[in-house]
Design brief:
Layout: H1 3-12, E1 17-21, E2 27-31, H2 32-48, E3 56-60, H3 65-76, E4 80-83, H4 90-100, E5 102-107, H5 112-115, E6 127-130, E7 145-147, H6 148-153, E8 169-174, E9 184-188, H7 189-200, E10 212-215, H8 227-234, E11 237-240, H9 247-254, E12 260-263, H10 265-278, E13 287-290, H11 297-307, E14 310-316, E15 323-326, H12 331-334, H13 338-345, E16 355-360, E17 375-381, E18 402-410, E19 416-421, E20 426-428, E21 431-433, H14 435-443, E22 448-458, E23 462-471, H15 479-487, E24 498-501, H16 515-525
Parallel strand pairs: 1-11, 3-4, 3-5, 4-8, 5-6, 6-7, 10-11, 10-12, 12-13, 13-14, 23-24
Antiparallel strand pairs: 1-2, 8-9, 14-15, 16-17, 17-18, 18-19, 20-21, 22-23
The structure holds adenosine-5'-diphosphate.
Amino acid sequence: MVGNIIDHAARYHPRREIISRSVEGPIVKTNWSEVKNKSLQLTKALLNLGIKAGDVVGVMAWNTARHLEVVYGVPGSGAVNHTLNPRLFSEQLIYIINHAEDKILMVDPDLVSVIEPLIEKCPKVQNVIIMTEKRHMPSTDMKNILCYEELLAQEDIDIQWVKRSEHDACGICYTSGTTGNPKGVVYTHRSNTLHALASAAPDMLGLASTERIMPVVPLFHANGWSIGYTAPLTGASMIMPGRDMTPKALYEMLECGATVTAAVPTVWLLLLDFLEKENLKLTYLKRVVIGGSACPRAVIEKFQRKYGIKVLHAWGMTEMSPLGTICSFKPEVLTLSEEEKLNVQETTGHPPFTVDLKITDDQGNNLAWDGISPGKLWARGAAVVKRYLKSSSDIADKDGWFDTGDVATMDPNGYMRITDRSKDVIKSGGEWISSIDLENAAVGHPDITEAAAIGVAHPKWDERPIVVVVCHRDKTPLKKEILDFISKHVAKWQVPDDVIYMDEIPHTATGKISKVDLRQKLLETGYVHPDTVK
Ligand code: ADP
């Protein structure tokens, strides 16, 4: 049970600190011992509110120590911790709160305004617990409101975690559902524990009691990359950045002593830009885990060469709890030149024990691990989902293989390289062009901050790539200059036909480029004729 993880942290690493930017404002400190005690109080409070084993508690909160109390207090009461992404549209939130049958909602005070307009449409919710102290309670018209700290103050810690089977549900996270309704992924006590053990390993996150990890990735995104379990399991300290995701605020939190951090590439593009502009250095940071979408080579290079911080490029999915692979160096890679090592770091690396991968053609035949043949990527493992919540059919085949929807190559050393999502591959003249390769090449240009490549219908070639770019402040390189730059990194026939400038590229609720919205934006703004957009 995940309760064992916090028990271990509280018993053997009680004084390791958790430093948070609180939702009330100030930076506050606690430790694993106190987090456990407050989790026990929460467990008791939830049981007194009538929570029964298997009930679902929805949680909409930023990364703070209080949120960690919930990560353990909710499953401790036998209930299931359902993380809610506040950036989802109201209709999606209503859908997932009702679909998961959340009985209680726990909400950060500044997110009450997200819940208020939809609460009437969520009839199963009995109480809303606002995660703050009495004096910071926001005014609201919602009924059955409770104050988190007031509730906990009424309880002592004289209670055991409610006994559950290791196969019982412990958490739920919905995929963002770019097509159709979001799908619920259920994590069990067993899958979360095995996953945390696997991701703590030296070739993976490599956590230890001497490290301080700062998850910028929200706990509500893809099981919080499991860091809320992996850190206490190893006795690591945590730095929780709270709500403020501006580069200045993240810098301030990193300088509280973070040695490891983790987030999607967009966060790091902005931070690197800030560091350069302000001429700042990071004092403590040794490793940065970058995943969720492809990490451009330019970002890896800058972190490593300019700041001496090692990049760990990672790949995973909500359906995989989420870790699939991390790019750490095996002996074969250690002997390579710096330039060749960077080539390897553009791959997403190799899986931990418990995860198995294969690539196949469309007929399901295994493809060679030659580093060049792209195929459908399949995964299976102890923490890989078999079936979505309330679905009537399995998503894994009889041998447990799950079709990830990604296209990838595997090299002879077992390094996996994502070339695309199946639906984003650009098919030109019977050949595949990787949108990720084009984006990475474009972002390597010093004046480009972000790039998205998409396929546009073409009468002769079926599809041709175009690239949408966001430029640095006050810079607009000419189209020809950008295309010439890209042509140095990809084959000639893969170079996009056109460059489109935008002030901002649309992102999904988890901070990734949303190609669906981008295509829509292109249609609406008339950049490309509607008939020619894929
Ligand atoms: P959502 O789809 O809700 O954003 P996920 O985090 O589950 O949430 O998305 C998983 C997908 O993100 C993967 O299937 C893959 O397409 C993409 N992805 C994750 N990490 C990487 C990476 N390092 N490089 C390229 N794509 C990645």
